[in-house]
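Protocol step 4 of 5: obtain the predicted structure for the target chain.
Materials: sequence only (see below). No template structures provided, no constraints applied. The aim of this step is simply to have a reference model before the mutagenesis design in step 5. Sequence pasted as it appears in the construct record:
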Amino acid sequence: MSDEISPSSSNSKPARGGVLGKLRGYFIAGILITAPISITIYLGWAFVTYVDSKVTPLFPAKYNPENYLPFGVPGLGVVVLVIGLILIGAFTAGFMGRFFQRSWEGIMDNVPVLRGVYKALKQILETILAQQSNAFREAVLVEYPRRGMWVIAFITGKTQGEVQSLTEKEVINLFVPTTPNPTSGFLIFVPREDMVSLSMSVEDALKMVISGGIVTPPDDRPQDERPKNVVRSTENTSTEE
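Step 4 output (structure tokens):
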């Protein structure tokens, strides 16, 4: 009788393990679905609430629709901010706007500390927002911090000025982001031939950096192109030669 009971008792454990495994899988799947949605909605709502709290109090009482409605109007401050920026852009495109901009820049040129900050921010924004700019529009692989180790970097522009004149080869400005915060990182100057262009989009490369490699985009290159683009260390190449 003991022999008949033991098989039934041993089979009950995998059954319980299978149920628990399925529940664990469903739980993880629920997190993967709800977490990105919840975080995105939360960040968007936090941004809208912050802008509304700063812009809405600037309305005169008689022009504020919230004084006439029994409920608040979320996003009203964002709409007003966007319209205001469009009007400012249209104003600066005219004669008076250009005159005001030249006068403001003339004032800033005489302020010792703020002029450097103002010019740097203006140049960065003009470079990023310009339609013809190639900044952060291509992801590449580069060997760093030593030969045989690779990092994902983003092209920010072609090196010019004193840095380029002091180097023998043509070098490119690369921004190497850090994990998990891609807004922090460092700038390196790399010869063009030492970079390996990636076919993945900038968005996919950022996902890989932010996740620390957990999220890895698939290789969407055609099958016949993959064997040709095998990345090898330049140090090993020179040794073999």
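Step 4 remarks: Residues 139-218 form one domain. Residues 2-55 form the longest helix (54 residues).
Proceed to step 5.
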